[in-house]
Amino acid sequence: MKKQTIAPEVDMMVVNAPLIANHAKAGNFVVMRLHEKGERIPLTIADSNKDAGTITLLFQKTGKTTEELGMLNSGDEIRDIAGPLGHPTPVKKYGHCVLVGGGIGVATLYPILKALKARNNKVTAILGARTKELLVWEENFREFSNEVLVATDDGSYGRKGLVTDALKDIIDHRSVALVIAVGPIRMMQAVSELTRPYGIKTMVSLNPIMVEGTGMCGACRVNVAGKTRFACIEGPEFDGHEVDFNGLGSRLVFYKKEEEVSLKRFKRKCKK
Amino acid sequence: MRYRNPEKRKADFKEVSLGLTERQAVKEAARCLQCKKPRCIAGCPVEIDIPKFISFVKEKDYLGGLRTIREFNMLPAICGRVCPQETQCQGMCILGKKSKPVSIGSIERFVADYEVSLGRIDLPDIKPSNGHKVAVIGSGPAGLTVAADLAKLGYDITVFEALHEAGGVLAYGIPEFRLPKKTIQREIEFVKGLGVRILLNRVIGKTQTIDEFFNDGFKAIFIGVGAGAPKYLGIPGENLNNVYFASEFLTRVNLMKAHHFPVYDTPVKKARKVAVIGGGNVAMDSARTALRLGAERVYIVYRRSERELPSRHEEIENAKEEGIRFRFLSDPRVILGNDAGWVRAIRCEKMRLSDPDESGRKRPEPTGKEFTISVDQVIMAIGQTSNPILVRSIKGLKLWGDGYIGIDREGRTNLKGIFAGGDISTGAATVISAMGAGKRAARSIDEYIMGR
Ligand SMILES: Cc1cc2nc3c(=O)[nH]c(=O)nc-3n(C[C@H](O)[C@H](O)[C@H](O)COP(=O)(O)OP(=O)(O)OC[C@H]3O[C@@H](n4cnc5c(N)ncnc54)[C@H](O)[C@@H]3O)c2cc1C
Ligand code: FES
């Protein structure tokens, strides 16, 4: 394992996992557990290299386990890692695709971008962040996309405003075959609402709470088009026009209190 | 059998049943009539020579008894604890007609635990390696049995398990207070002692594929991936916060040790009033787990009447002693939530049982009368279906029903070199039936590879 900090609170990690790298496709994720007492967390496979036998993971330090992951050093081992999980992104020739990434969502979009380009799609990428220094992997997107637009909340870089403003400009003036949005849930919801009246197919990648990630527990269930679906095997990508975002949002905060307890306890222990 | 005091035991996760003392075991063994045509053997899905092992116990040769069981069953400490003996061996025991059947399960458990108390494991003879590689997918009772039987015959066995722990339902489903983790670990050590390699975190169909296995020189493949995927009722409110599928609730506690949160990282919600829907082992386990997490009131809500409860008898008795409340002939209609999207109550319809149909089964029928139980947690334990990942990844594999693998009596699928058994071919069943399927499959894999 090799690790590097690429933005405040965001680390990138290259993990030696040849079997996973061998089958990793755009849209896949892994589930990992750091130690005997650890929880299992899902992380998107942001990049993979079959020849080197490695996968790349990006993570934002938002909770106890990601903080702990951030404290590992290059050369350390991850106790358990399983994958590649999830239903891969269906990739074919669509035409003009717009990828909308918020924050760490770029990790999910990057392999999708490469796969779409490999099938000769024209891709516009819109990357959003609160402020300039939180923007990650812009160069990677520039390398593969036909065009990259940046939006920051504070206007410190690119256009000031939301990714939806940039997206609206594009769909008002150009034809778009497919939109894929990955990021905070409110952002994905806003994108889906924006494209709905235009009838543009919009895919979003959901991040519900997971336990084992193999379809056996139902923790990751979301309501899509009125039906219960398991994100770990049928997703994590779903049609944004059919997802019950409010239901998902409510389930995401289910363990909020416990997460706070766990993080506080960890920070206290680290200080000692 | 001795049990811990209900008031004490419901406050912790330690084993409820203490098993037999040596003297009790010998006394119980002496009750066996040693029938000429033993009906108990016919009642056992793996046909253990029960009178023979019991005769060893009667003579106080406990290891002899254990060796006899192990000729048929690799996991006696587990089966002695979780088999539904009342419908199998003990249900057939001739003594049961007039008085109580011999407690075969307790004696089985006694000899297995006796070996533990000596701190040793007696490994059986293993044939020299024949160099043939066999892949076993899933480390539940079906997979472990295939692995052990073939390893004894000299095969080179690798078990691939998706989770970070081996054992299948034994590890992530059945709670510690009924089946201690160290009991499972010991039985798994036994299987490893036969030379079986167990690789964890391998989600076959994703991490590696069946085709790759054949290319890598595996001669045959056994699929024992189980049926752990939760079924849902399809009633309103199922996605409210604090509605759990039993699979998730039990996995959090058993596999992830959420009852030790925050020492362990995985949380589980503790509730005051809990309704568990269903009447099988999974429902009893969920209810008693919720109780141990600190719930004040736990209801089991079941559509039929007490007589139809599919759970092991012993667990129903244990649950009652611990104060679990049963609401029979009650069918959930809606789970009600508060404004924030959390459970606050469950509304059920009162049912009655119909006259028996052609199959002799009485069906629950609605009465139109409804009632509400106020609860802050609902656990759905109404059944499981096939684990989908692997099954869906194999082209041309014949399936039936809800994605179960179709096999013949010898455990063969329609594809050459691919065998299956356990819950993935029968639907959710029992530990011992999964082991029986594993034994049959091991036999046909041996025949297949040896060209017989
Ligand atoms: C809560 C609960 C209580 C129970 N109580 C009892 C009881 O008291 N008595 C009794 O007899 N029975 C009981 N049962 C039923 C019994 O546990 C099962 O019938 C039995 O475990 C089935 O064994 P199996 O080997 O077929 O599958 P499982 O035990 O389900 O094992 C399957 C294994 O395969 C793994 N797997 C799945 N997909 C893949 C993949 N793609 N790649 C690799 N590995 C994979 C799974 O992770 C799992 O470890 C209970 C079940 C539950 C859930
Ligand atoms: S995480 Fe358990 S079913 Fe999806």
Protein traits:
heterodimer; A: 272 residues; alpha/beta; Elongation Factor Tu (Ef-tu), domain 3; Rossmann fold; 2 domains; seven-stranded mixed beta sheet; four-stranded antiparallel beta sheet; 9 helices; globular; B: 452 residues; Fumarate Reductase Iron-sulfur Protein, Chain B, domain 2; FAD/NAD(P)-binding domain; 3 domains; five-stranded parallel beta sheet; 19 helices; 19 strands; 36% helix; binds flavin-adenine dinucleotide; binds FE2/S2 (inorganic) cluster
Description:
- By secondary structure, chain A is of the alpha/beta class.
- Chain A folds into two domains: 2-85, Elongation Factor Tu (Ef-tu), domain 3 (Beta Barrel), CATH 2.40.30; 96-252, Nucleotide-binding domain of ferredoxin-NADP reductase (FNR) module (Rossmann fold, 3-Layer(aba) Sandwich).
- Chain A has nine helices and 16 strands.
- In chain A, the strands form four sheets. Chain A has a seven-stranded mixed sheet, sandwiched between helices. In chain A, strands 1-2-6-5 form a four-stranded antiparallel sheet.
- In chain A, strand 9, helix 4 and strand 10 (147-152) form a beta-alpha-beta unit.
- By secondary structure, chain B is α/β, with parallel strands linked by helices.
- Chain B folds into three domains: 2-118, Orthogonal Bundle (Fumarate Reductase Iron-sulfur Protein, Chain B, domain 2), CATH 1.10.1060.10; 133-228 and 386-450, FAD/NAD(P)-binding domain (3-Layer(bba) Sandwich); 232-380, 3-Layer(bba) Sandwich (FAD/NAD(P)-binding domain), CATH 3.50.50.60.
- Chain B has helices at residues 6-9, 22-30, 39-43, 50-58, 62-70, 76-82, 89-92, 95-98, 104-118, 141-152, 169-172, 181-193, 210-215, 246-254, 281-292, 313-321, 388-393, 423-426, 431-450; strands at residues 2-3, 17-19, 133-137, 156-160, 197-199, 218-223, 229-230, 243-245, 273-277, 297-301, 325-327, 330-337, 343-353, 364-374, 377-380, 384-385, 399-400, 404-405, 418-420.
- In chain B, a hairpin with a 5-residue loop joins strand 12 (330-337) and strand 13.
- In chain B, helix 4 (50-58) crosses helix 9 and helix 5 packs across helix 9 (104-118).
- Chain B starts with a strand and ends with a helix.
- The chains are: A alpha/beta (272), B alpha/beta (452).
- Flavin-adenine dinucleotide binds at residues 82-84, 137-143, 160-163, 168-169, 173-174, 202-205, 224-226, 228, 250, 281-282, 285, 312, 387, 389-390, 422-424, 428-432, 434 of chain B.
- Residues 82-84, 137-143, 160-163, 168-169, 173-174, 202-205, 224-226, 228, 250, 281-282, 285, 312, 387, 389-390, 422-424, 428-432, 434 of chain B line the site of flavin-adenine dinucleotide.
